[in-house]
Specification:
149 residues
């Protein structure tokens, strides 16, 4: 997990070529002006999904990916993203179709996302985006940059 202000993205350059490309794109592009949907940055290696989502106070399952990092960026509104170290129970086994699995964890860390901040979820790392910040459910607009490891 990496959690920081967008202005500090250069601190994380050098982890991987694809992650470098995504971080540059994140800081050089006005993501808020993009239309909802998938936008390729480097084919299936690096792409961004712009979306609207409703935060929920009662989220239960963490997700994980094996092939991609997720860079979570709120464009409007606020959400919490929870991180854990390990699963107590896998409720949906990993599927390469969609690069996702789901499970139950004990929360380890809460990060507060809002415009100007980002979180990087590492491959296999349990994370739960879309949690209502301070119990206040709201509609948010966000970008998720998918980065092949």
């Amino acid at each position: 997990m990496i959690y920081d202000k967008t202005e500090n993205a250069q601190r994380y350059m050098g982890i991987s070529r694809n992650l470098d490309r995504a971080l540059r794109y994140m800081t050089e592009t006005d993501l808020a002006q993009m239309e909802d949907g998938r936008h390729e940055i480097e084919g299936d290696e690096v792409f961004v999904n712009i979306m609207q989502a409703d935060t929920k106070a009662d989220r239960k399952e963490y997700e994980f990916h094996e092939e991609y990092y997720d860079i979570q960026i709120d464009l409007s509104g606020r959400e919490d993203i929870l991180f854990a170290q390990e699963f107590q129970e896998i409720t949906k086994p990993y599927s390469g179709n969609g690069d996702i699995g789901m499970g139950i964890c004990t929360c380890e860390t809460v990060c507060h996302l809002e415009p100007g901040k980002f979180a990087i979820c590492m491959p296999t790392e349990p994370h739960m985006p879309g949690v209502a910040a301070e119990g206040c459910e709201e509609r948010i607009r966000k970008a998720v940059i998918k980065v092949r490891k």
